[in-house]
């Protein structure tokens, strides 16, 4: 049980580590257009991302799939940038039968996007986990514990994002569209910086 808790903590620390903030940025980008009232949509979205990264995390850790690490490290910020850009497409809509302004966030393609990009992030997670495991024979229990730790950390990030959105929009009365565009812009800018400073991209441009 001690080893289980150790890997669970490692998974939690890995996704919430500010120094490796790329995965945090992706979760923020996913949740930017949602509020606490839309927690069901967020739950489905996060579940789709979870399924995606759980699959490739397991396959890569068990060495059933192989890939170029440098390429994955470049693709991760690209997924963040794309997700952030999609947030700029959301517009406020007003129902004919209600005076309440709503966002058109019910788009099923976002779930497919989260699932697909989750596959890429799972390979990124596996790089760290494999470095921890070394030559350990039994990796199934550490794999499970690490993945659960990732999910707990992910839920913490989602809760913080939705909680902050509530305070800004409902309490401080900041325009929701403005809030969405500001956060999406910040995330997109940080993702673009990660892409431009990626060593592998530099190598590709030199070829």
TrEMBL record:
Superkingdom field: Bacteria
Keywords (A to Z) from UniProt: Membrane, Transmembrane, Transmembrane helix
Pfam families, alphabetized: HupE_UreJ_2 (PF13795)
Sequence intervals crossing the membrane: 20-36, 43-65, 71-90, 111-129, 144-167, 179-196
Listed InterPro entries: Put_HupE_UreJ (IPR032809)
Name of the protein in question: HupE/UreJ family protein
Annotated source species: Spirosoma telluris
């Amino acid at each position: 049980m001690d080893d289980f808790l150790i890997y669970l903590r490692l998974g939690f620390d890995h996704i919430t580590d500010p120094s490796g903030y790329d995965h945090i940025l992706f979760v923020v980008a996913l949740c930017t257009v949602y509020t606490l009232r839309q927690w069901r949509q967020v739950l489905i979205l996060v579940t789709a991302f979870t399924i995606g990264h759980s699959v490739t995390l397991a396959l890569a850790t068990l060495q059933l799939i192989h890939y170029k690490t440098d390429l994955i490290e470049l693709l991760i910020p690209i997924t963040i940038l794309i997700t952030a850009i999609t947030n700029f497409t959301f517009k406020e809509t007003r129902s004919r039968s209600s005076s309440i302004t709503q966002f058109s966030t019910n788009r099923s393609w976002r779930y497919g996007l989260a699932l697909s990009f989750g596959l890429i992030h799972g390979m990124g997670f596996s790089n760290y986990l494999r470095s921890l495991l070394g030559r350990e024979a039994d990796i199934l229990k550490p794999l499970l514990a690490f993945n659960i730790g990732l999910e707990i950390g992910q839920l913490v990030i989602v809760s913080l994002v939705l909680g902050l959105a509530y305070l800004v929009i409902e309490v401080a009365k900041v325009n929701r569209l403005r809030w969405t565009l500001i956060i999406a812009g910040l995330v997109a800018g940080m993702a673009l910086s990660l892409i431009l400073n990626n060593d592998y991209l530099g190598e590709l441009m030199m070829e």
